[in-house]
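Researcher: We plan to redesign the surface later, but first we want a full-length starting point. Tokens attached.
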């Protein structure tokens, strides 16, 4: 547990880690476009390969890759939801609103 003396509550190492990772995320427009490109360009490449070659294998691989990516994303979100809920509960209790 990490004590935050000025605010009067303790954070777990998971909570501190999540806060650090969110605070390190870039917010500039170019990083936004980079994240979009990472999610858009690979599927477009597989669709292009399918259109060019006519092999449905590329579409099947694309579907499997997107399903795998989404399963990983949802599992990370589920873990983060629990940590964020814990943080929100502590902050609301500190402010007397919980």
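Model: Full-length starting sequence:
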């Amino acid at each position: 547990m990490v004590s935050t003396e000025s605010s009067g509550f303790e954070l777990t190492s998971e909570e501190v880690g999540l806060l650090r990772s969110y605070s390190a995320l870039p917010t500039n427009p170019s990083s936004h476009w980079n994240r979009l490109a990472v999610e858009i360009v690979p599927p477009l490449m597989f669709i292009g390969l399918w259109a060019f070659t006519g092999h449905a294998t590329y579409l099947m691989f694309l579907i499997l890759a997107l399903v795998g990516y989404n399963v990983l994303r949802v599992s990370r979100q589920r873990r983060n939801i629990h940590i964020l809920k814990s943080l929100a509960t502590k902050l609301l209790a500190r402010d007397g609103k919980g």
